[in-house]
Design goal:
It is a single chain. The protein is α/β, with parallel strands linked by helices. The protein contains eleven helices and twelve strands. The strands form two sheets. The chain has a six-stranded mixed beta sheet. A six-stranded mixed beta sheet has the order 6-7-8-9-11-10, with helices on one face. It is elongated and about 80 Å long.
Length: 403
């Protein structure tokens, strides 16, 4: 078994057992007088079911993870989605359980020091007591309630798509867009992750939001698909995009995860693929760079080769899924560069880590080349693995080209 899975299973099992222990004892703390004593004859079997059902989650996740890349069915889709969601929920429950345990432990130590409780090693490690006062019980339980609330919010938050608007001044750009582009809109979306978890519904919402804005051109900047096998008809909503100058797509890292070697050609039936290629659209160069598995040298070589084919004085829009190497594009004075990939961090505290890694390219707009180039990273529409968003929102981006 690969080291990653050994590490994954170990951490997951420890997390489940610890969170389960805390939640079990909080339930016991609240229900002791009502029914906990009444279930004494069946307590052992209930504990086995309680903890055993939780330990099944990583097993289901690993089994379904191996199946979904080769086959699609509603049943495997359900188990894969449920197990990924549960693992995400476990993360927040672990945070809540750790805080609840810490509060209970501190209160127990204080009571021991003040002589109100006798020290025992059992209570040192499991500091929950059925005789705890109502207020203290509430304080201990509050982190679990907050964690559950965050889980519910994060799940619901994935279902809506907001429209984010940015404006750029044409006269301040490196090479101003043609006059007929001024007053027009550019639509950008990314990271739909269409597949076993996110099917066609969220994409349909995004397409409606884009069409409502009537953009002149639309860019899908990578991770259109998630990787696991899915019915290609899920991409059919893309055919409803109505941008007059066309709709263009560059691959991201998740397109490379697919075991279907024809996935990009299948995508090409629904949206125009532009990968390591330049297209001159209405006197503007659209420079699309493929995802080269994080290879900066290959990315640099492609950018250098392609920019040499662009006629001098032509405005450039550069598209690269992962903004990690976007500076390679910015060095060529484009008007606009577009990326996705980061999801804005997707789930707190992931956004903190993403901001540390990507800095100004983590999310949103940033100015470069003395304000002559604008870069925008979108948080995307879908989710990677865990179908939750906490601290970020699914979005489509509308860019207004002003004088």
């Amino acid at each position: 078994m690969p080291n990653f899975f050994i590490f994954f299973l170990t951490i997951t099992v420890i997390s489940i057992l610890f969170s389960g222990m805390v939640i079990w004892n909080i339930i016991r703390m609240w229900s002791y007088q009502f029914f906990y004593q009444k279930i004494r004859p069946h307590r052992k079997i209930i504990k086995i079911i309680f903890f055993g059902s939780q330990l099944l989650i990583p097993i289901i996740a690993i089994i379904s993870q191996n199946i979904v890349y080769t086959a699609y069915s509603p049943l495997t889709s359900f188990f894969y989605t449920f197990s990924m969601w549960t693992l995400g929920a476990l993360g927040y429950l672990l945070m809540g359980s750790t805080l609840a345990w810490s509060i209970a432990w501190i209160l127990y130590i204080v009571r021991v020091i003040t002589g109100k409780k006798r020290f025992t090693w059992n209570r040192f490690f499991v500091p929950f007591s059925v005789d705890t006062r109502l207020f203290i019980r509430t304080v201990i339980t509050l982190p679990i309630i907050i964690a559950l609330s965050v889980i519910v919010y994060g799940t619901i938050n994935t279902q809506s798509v907001r429209t984010v608007h940015y404006s750029i001044s044409n006269q301040k750009l490196a090479t101003p867009f043609p006059e007929n582009w001024v007053g027009q809109k550019i639509a950008v979306f990314s990271d739909t992750h269409t597949g076993q978890i996110r099917k066609r519904t969220i994409t349909e919402k995004a397409i409606r939001a884009i069409n409502d804005e009537q953009p002149i051109i639309t860019f899908m900047v990578g991770d259109l698909v998630d990787g696991p096998k899915f019915p290609i008809i899920f991409l059919e909503p893309l055919t409803k995009l109505q941008s007059p100058l066309g709709n263009y797509f560059i691959p991201g890292n998740h397109e490379k995860y697919s075991k279907d070697s024809e996935v990009e050609s299948m995508i090409g039936k629904y949206i125009t693929l532009i990968a390591d290629e330049v297209k001159i659209i209405d006197n503007v160069a659209i420079l699309g760079i493929d995802y080269h598995k994080g290879d900066p040298i290959k990315t640099f070589e492609q950018v250098e080769q392609l920019t040499n084919t662009i006629p001098e004085g032509t405005p450039i829009i550069g598209i690269l899924h992962d903004p990690k190497y976007i500076q390679t594009l910015l060095d060529h004075q484009p008007n606009l560069t577009l990326s996705g990939h980061t999801h804005g961090g997707q789930m707190w505290p992931g956004n903190i880590l993403v901001n540390l890694i990507y800095k100004e390219f983590a999310y949103g707009p940033s100015l470069h080349n003395d304000g002559k180039s604008v870069h925008i990273t979108t948080s995307g529409i879908g989710t990677a693995l865990v179908p939750m968003r906490v601290g970020t929102k699914p979005e489509v981006v509308i860019i207004h080209i002003e004088e």
